Amino acid sequence: MNARMAAKAAEGRLKNAGLEPTDHRVRVLMAIGNTPYPSSAPEILESVRTKTDINRVTVYRILDLLVEHEVLNRLDLGEKSRRFCLRDADEGEHPHFHCTRCDRYLCLHTDTLPLDRKALESLSLDVQHVDIRLEGICPACLKDS
Ligand SMILES: [Zn+2]
Ligand SMILES: [Zn+2]
């Protein structure tokens, strides 16, 4: 997934979520939308800081807000290790692949691992959060070995 997210797309996404597209929110969302793997809050902060003056608390607050409004997925990998990635407007949350060699996470879009939400509903399950993690060796590490 190398879809580049332009400012216009980020603004649209925020508006659709009922959020005011402030400059900071747009920049945070673009930083995540243009990273093909889930990033940690410090990584996002660093990336946004190269373009604008923003403090840590503001970035963290925006991340929480965007998760709350279902614009982002949050992976909870333990207290100190939360990572964020773009949530697909139609598909919702998606599974992730964890590389046990380099410790990177990759977003797996639902064409490789579809979630049958209808089938889940038919089991009377009200799914509120998806956290499916596959583990193995990523393409970059496979190439190096
Ligand atoms: Zn790897
Ligand atoms: Zn993801």
Ligand inventory reads: zinc ion
Strand content: 15-25%
Helix content: 25-40%
Number of helical elements: 6
Total number of strands: 6
CATH superfamily of the largest domain: Winged helix-like DNA-binding domain superfamily/Winged helix DNA-binding domain
According to CATH, what is the topology of the largest domain?
A: Arc Repressor Mutant, subunit A
Estimated structural class: alpha+beta
Order of neighbouring strands in the sheet with most strands:
1-3-2
Q: How are helices and strands ordered from N to C?
A: HHEHHEEEEHEH
Task: Work out the count of structural domains.
Answer: 2
CA-to-CA gap between the ends? Answer: 24 Å
Give structural notes:
- The chain starts with 6 loop residues before the first helix and ends with a helix.
- Helix 2 crosses helix 3 (41-49) and helix 2 (23-33) packs across helix 4.
- The radius of gyration is 16 Å and the shape is globular.
- The protein is built from 6 helices and 6 strands, in the order H-H-E-H-H-E-E-E-E-H-E-H.
- The chain is an alpha+beta fold and 145 residues long.
- Strand 2 (72-76) and strand 3 (82-86) form a beta hairpin.
- The strands form 2 sheets. It has a 3-stranded antiparallel beta sheet with strand order 1-3-2. The chain has a 3-stranded mixed beta sheet with strand order 5-4-6, with no helix packed on it.
- It has 2 domains: 7-86, Orthogonal Bundle (Arc Repressor Mutant, subunit A); 96-144, 2-Layer Sandwich (Dna Ligase, domain 1).
- It binds zinc ion (2 copies).
- One zinc ion binds next to helix 6.
